[in-house]
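ok so i was messing around last nite and threw this chain in just to see what happens. nothing serious, just curious
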Amino acid sequence: MQARDIMTTSVLTVSENTAVPDIARLLIAQRISGVPVVDRQNRIVGIVTESDLLRREELGTDKRRSRWLEIFVSNVRLATEYSRYHGRTAAEIMTHEVIRVEPDTPIGTIVEILESKRIRRVPVVENGKLVGIVSRSNLVRALGSVSSQIVPASTDDRRIRDLVIAEFARHKWGLDSENNVIVTAGIVHLWGLVSTQEERMALRVAAEGIPGVRGIQDQTILIHDESHMRSRCDPSG
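result:
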């Protein structure tokens, strides 16, 4: 499998001029921990994560040192920290050096990057443009969708996944995230939360109607499934 087989292509982004409070509200509303910063040509110029928002003057969490301790810290670091703690826009607080991968990067390489760099996501770039993002959740879902012997996804699998995602996007009951669709050897694996059994059935019917689909593995979870909720709430479970 490669990045293109599991990446999210509908990537939320912000511009360099996006205000810091707006970034914070976006992370909260979308339940994400970071967002790429792009220019008008959709090229990545930086990334803002939760860690960039932890130390802020407004919260009283900005790092403060005594004058004598500042003697041992370089002016570059002090200036960078000041901008990070007091900046008002994405451009002023973002991390400029963004680790990125290409669509054909093997997922094994991506795992190594996430572990070694201690990051949660990595943008996917092609010809200098942002085309997707791979997060740890993408990788976990991919693992849950393959057998013990991982085989590379075929061109047909990628086409099927694109068609399934497109079909879901046409309907109000469609899964709200393309992270929830993985295709291996013609088998469509569905993840995520659904509200009713009727919606779950419609998802299955829609996926089964895509040419080339050999079967469905439904791992979706009913929001009101009491047995599921008990297992999540019971510490002994």
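not much to say yet. Confidence is low (pLDDT under 50) at residues 147-151, 226-237.
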